[in-house]
Each structure stands twice: as structure tokens, then as C-alpha cells.
Design goal:
Elements lengths: L21 H12 L4 H11 L2 E2 H7 L5 H13 L3 E6 L5 E6 L7 H22 L1 H6 L2
Antiparallel strand pairs: 1-3, 2-3
């Protein structure tokens, strides 16, 4: 959403220009970011810059090769990441954030900070051992 479409803290949209626009734009953003792995993939690429497929696999050991490939292709389709293929043997493919994709930086930083705060909150509520069992 544009800057003028910020919430006012009550869960409502402040300006007339934004009324009625929330659902479609939120759904569009979620279509791009939805899934267990896309935010994790983006976070690693943002943190490390350019990464090869094998480096992403090492950084995210629980993701399958097929799922990683699917998620990367979807992010590439939406112009969030760039896929560069080198014509060599063995093949080399690198992934980086596009200029357009850099617009997600504040969102990903905010998600990361909120996640850290939420883990701390759960630790205070239940203790670390019980939080880990609740996963």
C-alpha cells in the first residue's frame, strides 16, 4: 500500500483514498510472501547478498530441493529475486534481490523483529522448553 494507506492503530484505514483497498492489496502481498519458505529464503538472500542454490539449501536444511526450486521460481516471476545462470559445467545459478524486491526490506526486518519479540514473549509465558515443545 502507499504511504497514505497506513493504519491508525485501531485497525482501520486513515484516508478516504485507502478505504476499501485493504483486502485486495493485502491479498496481493500475501500471494507473493505466503508459504513457510519464501520469507526465510528472502531473509537469507537479503542478509547474504547473492547466493547459489546449494548455499540456500545449506542455510535452509529443512526445505526440499523441489520446494526450494518452486519458491524461488515464484519469487523470480514476481520480480522479487533475480536468477542468473552461468553457462559453464557444472551449471552455476545465483539468486539476488532485484531493485524492486528491495522494497520488501522494511517488511522483512519488521517480521524478523516481531518474531524475535514473540519468541521472547513465549519464553516469558511458558519457558523455553515448553515453547519448543509447542512447535
Amino acid at each position: 500500500m502507499a504511504d497514505e494507506c497506513k493504519g491508525n492503530g485501531t485497525g482501520t484505514i486513515e484516508t478516504d483514498e485507502c478505504k476499501g483497498k485493504g483486502t485486495g492489496t493485502i491479498e496481493t502481498a500475501l500471494d507473493i510472501l505466503v508459504g513457510k519458505w519464501k520469507p526465510v529464503i528472502l531473509f537469507h538472500i537479503f542478509e547474504n547478498g547473492t547466493l547459489r542454490f546449494s548455499e540456500l539449501q545449506r542455510l535452509i536444511p529443512d526445505v526440499t530441493k523441489k520446494m526450494l526450486t518452486t519458491q524461488l521460481r515464484e519469487l523470480e516471476y514476481h520480480d522479487i529475486i533475480n536468477r542468473k545462470i552461468y553457462a559453464q559445467i557444472p551449471p552455476k545459478v545465483e539468486y539476488s534481490i532485484t531493485e524492486y524486491g528491495k522494497g520488501l526490506t522494511p517488511l522483512l526486518v519488521s517480521m524478523h523483529q516481531w518474531g524475535l519479540g514473540h519468541l521472547k514473549h513465549l519464553d516469558e509465558l511458558y519457558g523455553k522448553n515448553e515453547r519448543e515443545q509447542g512447535k
